Amino acid sequence: MGVAGVGRDGWLGSPLALANLYAFGRLAWDPNLTPEAIATEWTRQTIGNDPQVVGTVVKMLMQSWPAYVNYTGPLGMQTLTDITGSHYGPNIEASENNGWGQWHRADHLGVGMDRSVKTGTGYAGQYPPEIAKHYEDSATTPDNLLLFFHHVPYTYKLHDSKTVIQYIYDSHYEGAEQAAEFVRDWATLEGRIGQPLYEQVRDRLVYQAGHAIVWRDAIVQYFLKLSDIPDEKGRAGHYPGRMEAEDARLTGYKVIDVTPWEDASGGKAVSCALSESEPGAILRLDHRNEQPASNVPAELQNNISPVVKMRTCTTEWTFTGAAGHYTIAVQYFDLRGGIAKFSLLLNGRHLDSWLADATLPSRHPHGDNSTRHTVSGTELKPGDVLRVEGTPDGDDPAALDYIEVEPAGLPHQGWSKPITPN
């Protein structure tokens, strides 16, 4: 028996996700098949027989679930998503006291739900005795289920002697890196499979690599703040190349709080929300529907029909790092109800422009719609001015979280887009 979410947006969204539906059908006929055998069958029938294609796709399919668990909710915490809302982006406290039992009971001292018979809910006792005795004791519970069955201190040591809190930090960085690795793996198949499929999956993998960073940062900064235990590798809470939007020189943008706070770097972002009375608003053509915007005065609508009221807000930072070639990542919120536009400029020269045209959950800045756009191969020197311009549209206020400047060639930036200034 199984439930499959098919019938919308290309069946299961990503073409690669159809391997799961195929696997369900195959296991219904032969429950002794291995995951690798099923993945190989599906790849050969669906994508191609080229040995490199088969090897690469099977590797990606086998690694995709562990990667997702790592950058969402490892150790049996389950995915720390917005369980009372979209079930999509990170919202850690939504998984607490929600009526469905998907709780993690995190506090300043520890994390995990006690489901033991002796001190907890008794859930562990429902298993056959030979299994229940393993889950009853934290020492014999497998690490990947530890926090589902037990509440333990952050300093509790797993079977490999790593502490729980360090595992939380490490797993989220490893999961995000694995998501970036999928992009590089897929890039090796260009020219070996049909170009439409190649591009469709590539774009989805690039998006996932960016959203894995959203998940990583949200959960890492949440548990860093809650536990007050630093990451022994110095990553959590430290982003050397990150420049927050709220710290930029702002024109038009206003600083806002993001809820939940961990879904934005530092808990804040900037928004270019439209205002009817604000001076400096400009009238521009609406090329999407050529209809008068509802917020344009009637006297103007009589003379100019295809218009929409918009303005452009700007953020500026001065680069203080060493001269060299860098990848620039722009983290913004892509809200429904409009198609905002963003542009990245260096010393007034245009580097890139893009539209926030995805269809993502939530209608306010949130981990659901926090999105990453990257530009690589940019030469920077101290004193250079980086500027992001945001033009809102409809209900999308072109909200911006931060930009991140990292030396070109770092492993997790291999999926970015090379741009030549013009």
Task: Set down the secondary structure blueprint.
Blueprint: H1 18-29, H2 35-46, H3 51-71, E1 110-111, H4 129-136, H5 146-149, E2 152-153, H6 164-187, H7 195-227, E3 242-244, E4 249-251, E5 254-257, E6 268-271, E7 282-285, H8 298-301, E8 307-310, E9 313-318, E10 324-333, E11 340-346, E12 349-356, E13 370-380, E14 385-391, E15 400-407, E16 417-418
Parallel strand pairs: 13-16
Antiparallel strand pairs: 1-2, 3-15, 4-9, 5-6, 7-8, 9-14, 10-13, 10-15, 11-12, 11-14
Helix pairs in contact: 1-2, 2-3, 3-6, 6-7
CATH architecture of the domain at 242-274 and 311-418: Sandwich
Helical segment count: 8
CATH topology of the domain at 242-274 and 311-418: Jelly Rolls
Shape: globular
- Mean of residue pLDDT? 88
Sequence of secondary-structure elements: HHHEHHEHHEEEEEHEEEEEEEEE
Report Rg.
24 Å
Report the portion of residues in β strands: 15-25%
Distance between the termini: 57 Å
Describe the biggest sheet? 5 strands, mixed
Number of strands: 16
CATH classification class of the domain at 242-274 and 311-418: Mainly Beta
Percentage of residues assigned to helices: 25-40%
